[in-house]
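Standup notes
- HV: blocked on the assembly model, inputs below
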Amino acid sequence: MLSHRIQNIIDLIIVLTQKEMKVRYKSSFLGYLWSIAHPLTFAFVFFIAFKMVMRIAMENYTLFLIAGLFPWQWFSNSVSLSPMVFLSNASIIKKVNFPRNIIPFTIVLQDMIHFILSIPVIILFLFIYRKSPFLSWFYGIPLLMVIQFLMTFGVSLIVSSVNLFFRDLERLTSIFVTLFFYFTPIIYPETMIPETYKPFINLNPLAPLVVSWRNLFLKGTLEPFYLLISFLYAILIFALGYQVYRKLSWRFAEIL
Amino acid sequence: MSEPVILFDHVSKSYPLYHHITGGIKNFLFNLPKALSSIKNSKYEVLKDISFEVYKGETLGIIGRNGVGKSTTLGLIAGVLKPSKGKVTVKGRISPLLELGGGFHQELTGKENIMLNGVLLGLTRNEVKRKLDEIIEFSELGDFIYQPIRTYSSGMEARLGFSVIAHLDPEILLIDEVLAVGDTEFQKKCLDKMMGFKKSGVTMVFVSHSKEDVEGICDRVIWIDNRSIRMAGTPKDVVLHYSLI
C-alpha cells in the first residue's frame, strides 16, 4: 500500500512534468533548443557589450559567461514561472486534494532537466577553449544541484503561494529576478568587486552558489566555504518556503 | 448501510472577502489598517452549522437554488476546502469533483487528461493505461480524444469527465450537475452507469437540478437553503416540498 502511494506520487510528478513541458514548449525537441538558445543569446549579448565594446580584460570571457548563465537560467526560469503555476493549474487544484507542492516541484525539476541537458554545451565550449571536463564534476555537479534545487524550490514555494493572495507579485518577481541577476557575479567575476563592497556579496544567497558552479565548470574546484554558505542558505530558504506554503496551501482552492 | 463514510459535524464554512488582498501588494500596503481589518471581519458565510452523514453505498442528493452552498459542500467532502468550524470526516478514495467546465487542462489532449486525472485520483500510470481503452470507448469521442480539450464542446468535456471518473474505481463519487449538458442519450448512459455503481456499493453525492434524476437515483436527499439544511428525507418528500416553493 505504501509502495503504491509512492509509485503514485512518482507518476504524478512524471505526468505533471510532461504536461508542463508540453504546455510550455509544445514539442520537446524544440523545447531543448529553446532552453539553450536563451542563455546563449544572453551570453552573446554580454560578449558584445563587455568584451567587444567595453573590452573587459578577461580571457575566455564567453566560457566564463556560459558557466554562470546556465545555472542562473535554471533559477530564474523556475522563479519567473512560479507566480503563475497554481493559477494555471486551478482546474485540478479545485477538484482534487493532492499535495499541491508537487506543482512547483515539477517546475523546478523541469528546469533542472534543461540545465542538465545544457551541460554538453558547456563541455563543447571547454573544448573550443582547449580545456576539458574535470573528474570532480562527478560529485560536484550532483552536490551543487541538490543545493540549487532546495534553494529554487524554496523560493518557488513562496512566490507561487503568495502570488495567489497578492496577484501583482508576478511583476515584483520579475523585477527582483533582474536585480539579483546583476547583484550576482554572473557577467563579472567576484574578484572584480571593489574591496568596500566585497563583504556584502555573500548576503546574496545566489552569489556563493553561482561562483561555486563557475569554479567547478572552469577549474574543477569546489571551495568548501562557498559550498557551506550556499548549503545553509538553501536549507534556510527551503524551510521558509515550506512554512509559507504550509500556512497558505489550504486556502488555495478558496481563492483560485 | 453500517458506517458513515462521510460525516459533517456542525460544519460552517465562510470565506473571507479577499478583495483587499487580490487588489495587489500596493493596495494592501497603502490601505494596511483597513485591509487587515477586512481580512478579520469581512466574511461571507456559505454554510452554517450543517450536520449530516452519508453511509457506505448510499446515494445522497443535494438540491437547492443557485449559490446556496451545494458546491461548497462537495468541495468540503473532496477535501479541497477546509471547514471554518466543525469537522468533516471522509473515509475512502474520493473521485475528483466532477463539475461543469473544470478539471481538464485545455492544452492537453483528451487522452493526456485521462492520464492526469487518473494519477490525481491516486492510481499509478500503469493502472490508468490498462483502463484507457475502456474509458475512450465509453466516452464515444472517437478521434477527438487526440485533440486538445480546448477544441471540445462543453458537452464533450462532460462526457470525458464522466467517463474518466466512472472507470477509475472510485469509492466515493461526487457529481456536480455535470449531466445537464450531455445529450439525452449520453445522460441515460451515465445514469445507467450510476445505477451500476449503486449496485456495487459505491457511495455517491449527487448535486442536481433535475428532479427526475434526483428521484430516480438518490436514496436520500437534503435540501440546502439559506446556509443550512432546510429539509432532509426521502427523495419524493423533499423534491415535492422543494417544487412547491
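- HV (later): unblocked. Residues 184-200 of chain B form the longest helix (17 residues). The first strand of chain B starts at residue 4 and ends at 16.
- Next: hand off to the docking folks.
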